[in-house]
Design a protein that fits this description.
The chain is α+β, with helices and mostly antiparallel strands and 66 residues long. The protein is 21% helix and 38% strand. The longest helix is centred in the C-terminal third of the chain and has 14 residues.
């Protein structure tokens, strides 16, 4: 029997800005945070844990307020 890691994904959108958290395609035990906005290149950051990825996504999402 195959054991697969927990797959998690989230997408936050507001006024043309999107922050995504998802598992990597090559290594499902690692997570990726993608921060994109209209007129800007997409920033992509890799994280070894879901906790770190969610913390980074929350920091990016709060950063849109300033």
């Amino acid at each position: 029997m195959a054991i697969r890691p927990f797959v998690f994904g989230a997408r936050l959108r507001d006024k043309g800005r999107t922050v995504r958290v998802r598992s990597q395609e090559k290594n499902p035990k690692r997570y990726v945070v993608e921060d994109s906005a209209k007129g800007r290149p997409t920033r992509r950051r890799d994280h070894p844990s879901l906790q770190g990825a969610l913390r980074d996504a929350a920091r990016s999402w709060r950063g849109r307020l300033n």
